[in-house]
Specification:
By secondary structure, the chain is mainly α. Helix content is 37%, strand content 0%. The chain contains 3 helices and no strands. It has helices at residues 40-44, 58-70, 75-90. The termini are far apart. 0% of the residues are buried. The mean pLDDT is 85.
């Protein structure tokens, strides 16, 4: 059987007196909301709600990512521009 006596039991010690403890227990649980604050998710909100998934070759995927990065676009923005160009050449639906 293993000798567990060498492991020292750690204790937290005596808790502070109530008068020494902070007053955070009386504070509200929910922090006040700053109405002027805009988080990163709101800035990235695009209004796009539908998902489009497809399988492509690794070479095509790399090419799409490189083109989007070069022009500082999201991949969806690149695809939207490609669709617009295609429709201009071949006609709208």
């Amino acid at each position: 059987m293993a000798d567990l006596s060498k492991f020292k039991k750690k204790t937290l010690g005596i808790p502070p007196a109530l008068s020494d403890a902070g007053d955070n227990l009386s504070a509200p649980e929910i922090a006040p909301v700053d109405d002027d604050y805009i988080d990163g998710r709101t800035k990235r909100k695009t209004g796009r709600t539908e998902q489009l998934a497809t399988r492509v070759t690794a070479q095509f995927h790399k090419k799409v990512k490189m083109l989007a990065a070069r022009d500082e676009l999201k991949i969806v923005e690149l695809l939207e521009k490609a669709i617009d160009l295609y429709e201009n050449k071949h006609g709208n639906i």
